[in-house]
Amino acid sequence: MNVVFQHLSDSPVWAIKGIQSIAIILVVYLLRLLAGGLVKRHVTDQLNLYNWRRGIRTVTAILLIILVGRVWIRGIDSIATFLGLTSAGIAIAMHDTVANIAGYIFILWRKPFKVGDRVQIGETSGDVIDARLFQFSVIEIGNWVEADQSTGRIVHIPNNRILREPLCNYETGFEYIWHEIPVLITFESNWKAAKEILSTIAREKAEHLSDGAEAQIRRAAMKYLIYFKHLTPIVYTAVKDSGVQLTIRYIVKPRRRRTSEQEVWEAILEAFAKRTDITLAYPTTRFYAHNEEQLTTPHH
Known about the structure:
Oligomer: single chain
Strand content: 15-25%
Low-confidence stretches: 295-300
Structural class: alpha+beta
Shape: elongated
Number of strands: 8
Mean pLDDT: 81
Largest sheet: 5 strands, antiparallel
CATH topology of the largest domain: Alpha-Beta Plaits
Number of helices: 10
Strand order of the largest sheet: 4-3-2-1-5
CATH architecture of the largest domain: 2-Layer Sandwich
């Protein structure tokens, strides 16, 4: 053993540093294997497992650069400098993880949503079913499914998206949304009679859906600048390319939007079927031609 130490002491400096570097690489590699085994044992979700493995690889690579660099570069002798560089390296390597934790703290502190709320972030909409340290999960709605019905898929969203993208909450603060049903009738139809029919249907089928909305607005106004002058259903008139458009606008809870629209449309179809002066319109093309007899020169 003394011979070995004597040999090392007589070796060039670069040889000693090389041996130290190899030792550091072996230790860090063993630590990487140990951390990977612990993560594999405790993390079952494939996405989380992938993220953890990627983070471990990045952290170990940065540690190798710092530790081996400290061996070969004399300028990194200060422990404070070393710790500072190590902390910076870990922060860079674990950027997504740190951001997810910050997002979770924001969720707990500001409460932009709670489990059970219907939310939209980016192009993803759904009902929140779980919120954890690194991600929250939703049952997806919409996408290829009409209206706001569930697709059946569970979508896991990283918490850091809360800090980077707008979040729409259908229910927290104010549990109602405005819904519109456009009804297009032909230009030849009696649009005034049609508008009166739609107004009656809206009052019968949709007015009760806003029960409780006024009280919620008063409560929400204590925290947000929310103000609606009229909450009763209304019908708007507009002219489109293929006819007169009458749009029913009413307030409803998000989860009742599709069923309420079905009830309104069934009532409209039944009412219009009894009228001969009202016809639903659809995109059409009309051609007009001059009288050919007036354009033809008579022969003598």
